[in-house]
Amino acid sequence: MRVLVTGGAGYIGSHTVVQLVAAGHEPVVVDSHVNSRPSVLPRLEELTGTRIESHGFDLRDADATSALLGEGGFDAVIHFAGLKAVGESGRSPLEYYDNNLGTTFALLRAMGRHGVGTLVFSSSATVYGEQAPVPYREGHEPLVSSSPYGRSKVMQEQILRDVAATGAVRVALLRYFNPVGAHPSGRIGEDPQGIPNNLMPFIAQVAVGRRERLQVFGGDYPTADGTAERDYIHVEDLAAGHVAALDHLRDHPEIRVREWNLGGGRGTSVLEMVAAFEAASGRPIPYDVVDRRAGDLPAFWADASRAEVELGWRATRTIEQMCADTWRWQSANPQGYPA
Ligand code: NAD
Ligand code: WQD
User: Fold this and answer.
1) pLDDT per residue as tens digits for the range 168-204
2) What is 2-180+232-263's CATH topology?
3) Count of C-beta atoms within a 10 Å radius of residue 284
4) Atom 3 (ligand 2) nearest CA
5) Domain covering 199-230+265-308+318-332 assigned CATH 3.90.25.10 in the classification
């Protein structure tokens, strides 16, 4: 399949591009580089041994998006492009709604105009909100979220369901849990700009000497060691989940819209992650336990059985591999991608 990968220069998109090529598909990247570096692209060509067609524009440019899809030959779209920082979304809600909904509108219109009928969408466990029973199951309702970022995902899911109901597009809604790790080559990985918001890149930057100490947000949660538990998933497993969803939609034309959790199905605490990273890197991770971060939940993980049964997909990589691969990427690229 020829697949348009929006946000294909970003963290999850770049890993998915590599796996699409390995699976015999032809990915085409579009990315505005609002949160990525163009220098990832030659590395994708190096890893895949093939030329990757790429386009640098903002998907909200409806004419450019339509012109690209109008070039023809696309079988599907994987839509990663979006802004994703929860805290920033509270400070700039309009920017988040505009970008995340605007990219989806432009894409859906262009797909409709040019007869591209299959979409795989990056959703998030954040749509389960604060009240859903753990483990999270796809059938849970209502979908709610506590941040503008999360609400933009709830809204996009709803818009996609409404458009899918007309028969205009068939949609996989993939709800990711906590993606971490990097390609085992160490050539591509997560490269947050500024101070990392997420745990794993922060730990990695402490290990490599870019930051002095980790702050552990909350030591008094009702968990085994008092720190919060999350369902970390290796980005390589996550990328494989996209290929599986794409193949599943192709083989099941009766599906109009379907949600799948992509997680490992178990919780790991902050301190367990710190210990695993120390073991993988051989570096100490000094930390202080500080107050809880506003909005954080004590513990959640996926029931990932629907993806296993229906997609034949399961997360197989361990916490140790997540840390080892992150460390290989971070130690070889201490400042991330070249500008
Ligand atoms: P990322 O920021 O690394 O990648 C997103 C890419 O989209 C970036 O390269 C960015 O430049 C591009 N982009 C943003 N707005 C654009 C626009 N208007 N036009 C064109 N390109 C644009 O993020 P990621 O971690 O790879 O996340 C990919 C998707 O998965 C996002 O939709 C995110 O919300 C979702 N998601 C991520 C996580 C996570 O923890 N990383 C968890 C759940 C869901
Ligand atoms: C993990 C754990 C923190 C940083 C976020 C989004 C979610 C999804 C994935 C997009 C928590 C603790 C963190 C630090 C810490 N993204 N922590 N010190 O919050 O589970 O999920 O990313 O959809 O929507 O909310 O991930 O990596 O920020 O935090 O102690 O410096 O690590 O408190 O328990 P989170 P995270």
Assistant:
1) 999 999 999 999 999 999 999 999 999 999 999 999 9
2) Rossmann fold (3.40.50)
3) 10
4) 217
5) yes
